């Protein structure tokens, strides 16, 4: 059952295409989120939309890298109920 997620942002050629990637750690279920920019506000809105249809039992945690697009992580946590963690840089 999906509930612990990893997230990232993929930028296409010349940063014209942006996709948020959410992968459940256990099932490898994948959600792709179309983003209109790489700002923290865009990530907040896109990831909020992606998690909204999921029941709370499937929204336990999200681990993300140190990207600036997650600057509004506290707001995302309040909106979704996710505990948000950040991976240590290599």
From TrEMBL:
InterPro entries in alphabetical order: Integrase_cat-core, Transposase-Integrase, Transposase_IS30-like
Integrase catalytic domain sequence ranges: 1-90
Family annotation (PROSITE patterns): INTEGRASE
Highest taxon of source: Bacteria
NCBIfam families: transpos_IS30 (NF033563)
Protein's name according to its UniProt entry: Integrase catalytic domain-containing protein
């Amino acid at each position: 059952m999906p509930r612990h997620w990893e997230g990232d942002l993929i930028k296409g050629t010349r940063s014209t295409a942006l996709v948020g990637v959410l992968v459940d750690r256990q099932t490898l279920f994948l959600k792709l989120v179309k983003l209109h920019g790489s700002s923290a506000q865009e990530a907040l809105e896109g990831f909020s939309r992606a998690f909204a249809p999921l029941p709370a039992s499937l929204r336990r945690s999200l681990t993300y890298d140190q990207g600036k697009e997650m600057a509004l992580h506290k707001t995302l946590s309040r909106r979704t109920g996710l505990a948000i963690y950040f991976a240590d840089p290599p």
